[in-house]
Design brief:
Layout (H helix, E strand, L loop, with lengths): L1 E6 L2 H8 L1 H9 L4 E2 H8 L3 H13 L3 E9 L2 E8 L1 E6 L18 H17 L18 H22 L26
Parallel strand pairs: 1-5
Antiparallel strand pairs: 2-4, 3-4
Helix pairs in contact: 2-4, 3-4
Length: about 190
Amino acid sequence: MLDVMIVSSPEGSAALVNPLRSLLLKELRQPSSGSSIARKLNLKRQVVNYHVRELEKLGLIEFVEARRAGGMQERIFAAKARSYVIGLEALGELAPKATESESSSSKLTFVANECLSEVAKRPEGTPVFIQDLTIAFRDRDDRIACMQELTNFFVNLQKRYDQSGIGGEWRVIGAAYQKPVKTPKEI
Protein backbone atom coordinates (compact mmCIF):
# COMPACT_ATOMS: atom_id res chain seq x y z
CA MET A 1 0.00 0.00 0.00
CA LEU A 2 1.29 3.43 -0.95
CA ASP A 3 1.66 6.07 1.73
CA VAL A 4 0.26 8.78 -0.56
CA MET A 5 -1.40 8.54 -3.97
CA ILE A 6 -1.68 11.60 -6.21
CA VAL A 7 -5.01 11.59 -8.06
CA SER A 8 -4.77 13.55 -11.28
CA SER A 9 -8.08 12.85 -13.01
CA PRO A 10 -11.18 14.98 -12.44
CA GLU A 11 -13.24 11.79 -11.97
CA GLY A 12 -10.87 10.44 -9.33
CA SER A 13 -10.78 13.80 -7.59
CA ALA A 14 -14.59 13.89 -7.53
CA ALA A 15 -14.55 10.48 -5.83
CA LEU A 16 -12.21 11.78 -3.12
CA VAL A 17 -14.57 14.61 -2.19
CA ASN A 18 -17.69 12.42 -2.32
CA PRO A 19 -18.54 11.71 1.36
CA LEU A 20 -19.56 8.07 0.85
CA ARG A 21 -16.64 7.22 -1.43
CA SER A 22 -14.11 8.86 0.88
CA LEU A 23 -15.62 6.88 3.78
CA LEU A 24 -15.25 3.66 1.75
CA LEU A 25 -11.61 4.49 1.01
CA LYS A 26 -11.04 4.94 4.73
CA GLU A 27 -12.71 1.60 5.50
CA LEU A 28 -10.70 -0.13 2.77
CA ARG A 29 -7.38 0.72 4.40
CA GLN A 30 -7.95 -2.77 5.76
CA PRO A 31 -8.98 -5.30 3.07
CA SER A 32 -12.71 -5.93 3.13
CA SER A 33 -15.73 -6.69 0.98
CA GLY A 34 -18.51 -4.32 0.04
CA SER A 35 -20.97 -6.50 1.95
CA SER A 36 -18.90 -6.38 5.14
CA ILE A 37 -18.61 -2.60 4.93
CA ALA A 38 -22.35 -2.28 4.25
CA ARG A 39 -23.13 -4.25 7.41
CA LYS A 40 -20.64 -2.26 9.47
CA LEU A 41 -21.97 1.12 8.29
CA ASN A 42 -25.63 0.04 8.17
CA LEU A 43 -25.90 0.81 4.44
CA LYS A 44 -27.50 -1.10 1.58
CA ARG A 45 -25.14 -3.72 0.16
CA GLN A 46 -26.04 -2.81 -3.44
CA VAL A 47 -25.18 0.87 -2.88
CA VAL A 48 -21.83 0.06 -1.29
CA ASN A 49 -20.95 -2.51 -3.97
CA TYR A 50 -21.78 0.01 -6.72
CA HIS A 51 -19.40 2.58 -5.21
CA VAL A 52 -16.71 -0.06 -4.61
CA ARG A 53 -16.87 -1.01 -8.32
CA GLU A 54 -16.58 2.67 -9.28
CA LEU A 55 -13.57 3.16 -6.97
CA GLU A 56 -11.94 0.12 -8.58
CA LYS A 57 -12.56 1.54 -12.09
CA LEU A 58 -10.93 4.80 -11.00
CA GLY A 59 -7.86 2.91 -9.76
CA LEU A 60 -8.22 4.05 -6.15
CA ILE A 61 -8.72 0.54 -4.76
CA GLU A 62 -7.64 -2.89 -5.96
CA PHE A 63 -9.01 -6.42 -5.91
CA VAL A 64 -7.18 -8.53 -3.32
CA GLU A 65 -8.89 -11.93 -3.36
CA ALA A 66 -12.17 -13.84 -3.59
CA ARG A 67 -13.52 -15.69 -0.55
CA ARG A 68 -16.45 -18.03 0.02
CA ALA A 69 -18.93 -16.52 2.46
CA GLY A 70 -22.29 -18.10 3.19
CA GLY A 71 -22.42 -20.03 -0.06
CA MET A 72 -21.47 -16.96 -2.11
CA GLN A 73 -18.25 -15.62 -3.55
CA GLU A 74 -17.19 -12.42 -1.80
CA ARG A 75 -14.72 -10.06 -3.49
CA ILE A 76 -12.19 -8.44 -1.15
CA PHE A 77 -10.75 -5.03 -2.00
CA ALA A 78 -8.15 -2.76 -0.44
CA ALA A 79 -7.29 0.91 -0.81
CA LYS A 80 -4.18 1.52 -2.90
CA ALA A 81 -2.95 4.20 -0.46
CA ARG A 82 -3.26 5.32 3.13
CA SER A 83 -4.00 8.87 1.94
CA TYR A 84 -4.85 10.61 -1.30
CA VAL A 85 -4.01 14.05 -2.68
CA ILE A 86 -5.73 15.77 -5.58
CA GLY A 87 -3.08 16.66 -8.14
CA LEU A 88 -3.10 19.98 -9.95
CA GLU A 89 -3.58 18.14 -13.26
CA ALA A 90 -7.17 17.43 -12.19
CA LEU A 91 -7.86 21.18 -12.28
CA GLY A 92 -6.85 21.59 -15.91
CA GLU A 93 -6.74 25.25 -16.90
CA LEU A 94 -7.67 26.33 -13.36
CA ALA A 95 -4.45 24.92 -11.89
CA PRO A 96 -1.69 27.31 -10.76
CA LYS A 97 1.22 27.63 -13.21
CA ALA A 98 4.95 27.39 -12.59
CA THR A 99 5.48 30.57 -14.58
CA GLU A 100 4.02 32.84 -11.90
CA SER A 101 6.37 35.22 -10.06
CA GLU A 102 8.58 33.86 -7.30
CA SER A 103 6.45 35.64 -4.69
CA SER A 104 3.03 34.38 -5.80
CA SER A 105 0.67 31.99 -4.06
CA SER A 106 0.25 30.17 -7.38
CA LYS A 107 3.98 29.44 -7.60
CA LEU A 108 4.03 28.11 -4.02
CA THR A 109 1.00 25.91 -4.70
CA PHE A 110 2.55 24.58 -7.92
CA VAL A 111 5.89 23.77 -6.25
CA ALA A 112 4.20 22.17 -3.22
CA ASN A 113 2.12 19.96 -5.51
CA GLU A 114 5.22 18.96 -7.50
CA CYS A 115 6.91 18.00 -4.22
CA LEU A 116 3.95 15.87 -3.16
CA SER A 117 4.04 14.10 -6.52
CA GLU A 118 7.79 13.46 -6.30
CA VAL A 119 7.64 12.27 -2.69
CA ALA A 120 4.72 9.95 -3.50
CA LYS A 121 6.78 8.32 -6.29
CA ARG A 122 9.95 7.77 -4.26
CA PRO A 123 10.84 4.27 -3.04
CA GLU A 124 9.33 3.43 0.35
CA GLY A 125 11.75 4.17 3.17
CA THR A 126 13.69 6.85 1.27
CA PRO A 127 14.51 9.59 3.76
CA VAL A 128 12.70 12.92 3.72
CA PHE A 129 13.88 15.83 5.86
CA ILE A 130 11.22 18.27 7.05
CA GLN A 131 11.72 21.43 9.05
CA ASP A 132 8.58 23.41 9.90
CA LEU A 133 8.51 26.44 12.16
CA THR A 134 6.68 29.70 12.78
CA ILE A 135 8.39 33.05 13.28
CA ALA A 136 6.63 36.14 14.64
CA PHE A 137 8.53 39.17 13.32
CA ARG A 138 8.87 42.30 15.39
CA ASP A 139 8.33 44.54 12.33
CA ARG A 140 8.56 44.81 8.53
CA ASP A 141 12.33 45.42 8.61
CA ASP A 142 12.93 42.17 10.54
CA ARG A 143 10.79 40.28 8.02
CA ILE A 144 12.73 41.71 5.08
CA ALA A 145 16.07 40.95 6.79
CA CYS A 146 14.97 37.35 7.47
CA MET A 147 13.90 36.80 3.84
CA GLN A 148 17.27 38.14 2.65
CA GLU A 149 19.08 35.86 5.10
CA LEU A 150 17.05 32.88 3.84
CA THR A 151 17.85 33.77 0.24
CA ASN A 152 21.56 33.99 1.03
CA PHE A 153 21.40 30.72 2.97
CA PHE A 154 19.91 28.83 0.02
CA VAL A 155 22.35 30.35 -2.47
CA ASN A 156 25.32 29.39 -0.25
CA LEU A 157 23.87 25.92 0.39
CA GLN A 158 23.65 25.26 -3.34
CA LYS A 159 27.16 26.61 -3.99
CA ARG A 160 28.62 24.42 -1.25
CA TYR A 161 26.87 21.10 -1.94
CA ASP A 162 25.61 21.05 -5.56
CA GLN A 163 27.95 18.50 -7.13
CA SER A 164 27.58 15.35 -9.16
CA GLY A 165 28.07 12.31 -7.01
CA ILE A 166 26.60 9.13 -5.62
CA GLY A 167 24.44 11.03 -3.09
CA GLY A 168 21.75 11.62 -5.69
CA GLU A 169 19.76 14.74 -6.41
CA TRP A 170 17.71 16.20 -3.58
CA ARG A 171 15.11 18.92 -3.88
CA VAL A 172 15.45 21.62 -1.23
CA ILE A 173 12.59 24.08 -0.84
CA GLY A 174 12.19 27.15 1.27
CA ALA A 175 8.91 28.98 1.51
CA ALA A 176 7.67 31.71 3.77
CA TYR A 177 4.18 33.14 3.92
CA GLN A 178 2.06 34.97 6.41
CA LYS A 179 -0.22 32.58 8.25
CA PRO A 180 -3.92 33.40 7.98
CA VAL A 181 -5.56 34.86 11.03
CA LYS A 182 -8.11 32.46 12.51
CA THR A 183 -11.66 33.68 12.52
CA PRO A 184 -13.84 33.13 15.62
CA LYS A 185 -15.60 30.24 13.78
CA GLU A 186 -12.26 28.41 13.35
CA ILE A 187 -11.12 28.75 16.95
